[in-house]
Structures are given as C-alpha cells and as structure tokens.
Write a structure and sequence with these properties.
alpha+beta, elongated, about 250 residues
C-alpha cells in the first residue's frame, strides 16, 4: 500500500514551484519550447523506468538522462546565469513571496514618473520619430549602459524627444532609464532571433525583444515607419499598444 504524507506533499510542491519559476524565467526566450520538450521526456522516462519498470528501455533512458545533463548546462547556460542572477539580486531575495504574488514593491512608480515618457512617446508617434526606450527593473543593465553615452539626468519629455530627434547622434541607439533617471543613450542592445517576429518589424523591435529576453527590463519602441508604439515585456512583444495600455504597463515597472 502506497503511503502519502505531508512530507511527500511538500516534496511535490517544491518541485512544482521550482519548475514553474524556471518556466517563468525561460518564457522570455525561445528556450521555453526546449524546456517543455525536456519536461515531456522526463515524464516518459519516469513512466517507463519507475511505473512500468521496463529494464531495457529504462536503462537506455537513464544513459540519455546522464549524458543530457551535461548538454543541458551548455544549452541553457544563459538561462542558468539569469536564474542565479535573479536569486542573488537584492530585489529577488524573497523568491517564494514573489512567486506567491504577495511581495510588496519597494518603490512604487508614480504618475509623475511615467508621464514624461508617455507624452514623449505620443509626440514621437505623431511625428513618426523612431525611438527605443528601456526601463531597468531588478536585473542590472550595466553592460548595456556602458555601451552608450552616460547622461544621468532627470526624466524629461523634452530631453527624450531631443535624444531621438532624427539629426541627433544618439537617436539610433537605445535610451536606458535606471532608478527613475535617464542613465544613458545610444546604447547597443542584444538582438532577438525569435522567428515569430513579423518581417515588417525592424532592428529596434528586435533589440527591444532581445533585451526583454535577456533581462526583466521593459522596452518601448516607437516605429519610424508607422508611428505605432510597441512594448517588449517578459520575452513578449506587444504591438500597436494604446496610450492607456502603455500607462498601465509603465505603472507596473
């Protein structure tokens, strides 16, 4: 007779929590499909080797699992780095509370903090001025800030529009906001290789999605061709975002 106690329940909950947290981190990149495939393989492995007790098939799958463990470290090295970084970051110390959605925000974003960004995006959208604005959250973007020109200025609608003015030397790069200040402009971001990105989207959109895949940052794109506003968040690119939706997303940063 199989006995199921509190210890077994805690064991299952811990495994479920770990898998879900890893899935959330990998959701920002195309690795989520590979991760899902690995979960399916592990379920099949448990069924054959543990439940049905098929020795030959179980032995073969055991070898695959042992060899595959090393391959997974190489395959998911970027995701593992992000996982360890998120745990070690001061804003991610309370991982369980964050998972349960009961953790309080340390610094609440106010209406005055986001309005200069929103108004600048509205004006640039009307004038069809291309722009790429990245807002840092918990994960540091130091390497990307150092790739551009350090500004360290208060967030201002006029300053944002001047940075992305077509004749400005900084308009082609990304502007990064850190701790409610404009940290740098003209920054170089990683480019996403997601095949689901529409071909009509250019380098700005791919860079926005790239930084959203590599970190927990939120990126805003104003299209130079159409004036449409897009937002990349948690590895997902949202196109044709309305002003109201943009305000809601920024208020959650």
């Amino acid at each position: 007779m199989i006995q199921f106690g509190i210890k077994d329940m805690i064991d299952i909950l811990l495994v479920a929590f770990m898998l879900y947290y890893m899935y959330k981190l990998m959701k920002r990149s195309s690795a989520v499909n590979i991760f899902s495939g690995i979960i399916v393989f592990l379920i099949v492995w448990i069924i054959f080797s543990q439940i049905f007790n098929l020795k030959l098939m179980g032995t073969m799958l055991n070898y695959v699992v042992n060899i595959g463990a090393l391959a997974l470290v190489v395959l998911f090295q970027e995701e593992i780095r992000r996982f360890l970084s998120s745990i070690g970051t001061s804003g991610r110390k309370h991982v369980l509370l964050d998972f349960l959605h009961i953790r309080k925000q340390d610094k609440k974003t106010t209406h005055e903090d986001i309005m200069p960004i929103i108004l600048a995006c509205i004006n640039m959208s009307r004038q069809r001025t291309g722009a790429l604005i990245v807002i840092q959250r918990n994960e540091a973007l130091t390497e990307y800030i150092n790739s551009g020109d350090v500004i360290d200025a208060n967030i201002s609608q006029r300053l944002i529009e001047n940075i992305f003015f077509k004749n400005s030397p900084l308009h082609d790069g990304a502007m990064i906001v850190r701790n409610k200040r404009i940290a740098a402009a003209g920054c170089i971001l990683p480019v996403s290789h997601n095949v689901d990105i529409p071909r009509s989207f250019g380098l700005r959109h791919r860079s926005a999605l790239g930084i959203a895949e590599k970190s927990d940052a939120l990126a805003i794109v104003v299209s130079e061709e159409t004036g449409a506003i897009s937002v990349a968040n948690e590895g997902v690119l949202y196109s044709d975002v309305s002003t109201d939706k943009l305000e809601v997303m920024l208020s959650q940063v």
